[in-house]
Structures are given as structure tokens and as C-alpha cells.
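== Fold encoding ==
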Amino acid sequence: LGALQSFSLYEPRYVQVPTDEQGLLPEGLTPALTQGARLLYAQPNFQNPTGRRLPVERRRALAAFAQTSPFPVLEDDPYGALNYQGEPLPTMLSMAPDHVVHLGTFSKVLAPGLRIGYIIAPEELHFKLVQAKQATDLHTPTLTQRIAHEVIKDGFLDEHIPTIRQLYGAQCEAMLGSLARHMPEGVTWNRPEGGMFIWVNLPAQIDSMKLLAEAVDNHVAFVPGAPFFANDAQQNTLRLSFVTVPPEKIEEGVARLGKLIRERL
């Protein structure tokens, strides 16, 4: 959603690449070339909003594409450190360092309020990226940069990330259990291996935007799925977040949401 909002300033025409339950399909890139695409944006780790993680073989295919692509390949990786199952997968940057622009952030593993991210890019792009940053907000505050530097240098971040992995992983399992107990037949959802979100598909007749108003009246919040689509929005989708709510509140909230959905069937 944040990427769409950022790109919208330039009034782009979006070209969608086909996906499945594992994420972007590399074979869909060739048709995109014929439609005048100028940038490939990908979020391979626990994508927002679907929570999908791109398999290694598809990452290799995208990295190979980047090496011959006429346009930049942008790898956005805000959730890569938040894996709850298995080992972290290699980035596309590690496979094609001279052809991939990699975006990272401290907001998901340290503190959102710091508003600090970083870019790893081929040297020939550095000057243009600095110009773009200066045009946006001049520079990131020195104080918050120093805070991030200190927590990395002192080893705090290396100790902190396993702690939040354990916490968020438990809350993810709690939400998955609550969904299984309280959602009516016809509602489906993914089982993320990391990240912050669970993507929910409702029966076709339910508009999640309309459902939201009633849910808020019942002290339950979610993000309707439609704004996450560049084109052809699916109104019967929504995104749940499990990282800021303890398990007992998750159980209560999902139970209320399940009741509201059941009443609309």
C-alpha cells in the first residue's frame, strides 16, 4: 500500500505480473515488457498484504531477469528479518548485486517512529537517489540516524530480533487458531511463515469496506483489501495484523469479526 502511494505521485500506469500462492510468477515478466514497463517492484519476503514468501528458484529467475532487464528491479524487503519458520532465504540482491536495487528499513524490527530506511543500489544510481531523497525531505534527522547506529554497533538489534520473532510468531499462531475456531465456512486465509499479516478471502457477496464500519462499531479493526490492488480490486478481501495485539485480544477480536461475517451470509 505504501509503495502504491509513493508511486502515485508520478501518475504511473501499472502493469500487473501474475502471481499464485507462492508469489510472483517469473514467466509473467515477458508480457510485461511488451506493455511498456519501466520498473519491476517485488516484495519477496512475507509480502504486504498477502504474507507470501517467494521461493528460492523464483528469486533466482528474477535475479537472472534483472541482469538482462532494460529497467531497474526493485527488491523491497521490510519483513525479511521476521521469519518464524525455517531459515532466511537469500535476497535477489545477493544473486545480482549490480542489477538489483534493495530497500530495507528499521521500522519493523526496531521502532516505526524512527522512520529510517536504507537503499543498496548500483553505484551509477547513487547520485540520482541522493537527489530524490533531498527533494523529498532533505535528509533523515541526524539524531535518529545516530540512535540506529548505536543499537546496531552495540549488538542490541542482534539480540532484539530473535525476541520479536518469538513474540510475533506466537501471536501469528494465536490468530491462525482463532480464525480456525471462529470463521464461518467460505472464509479462507493464508498461513504466513513470517511477516506481520494474514490475508483473508471472504465469500464473494461480502464487501470488506462496508464490513469495516460495522466492525469498528464492535471495536474490531482490519484493513480492507481493495486499496492494495493496483488494478481490478477484489472487494471481498481484507488484511489482519497480529503483531500489536496479545493472544487473548486476538481471540476476542476474531470471534467478533467471525460473528459479523456470519451474519452477512
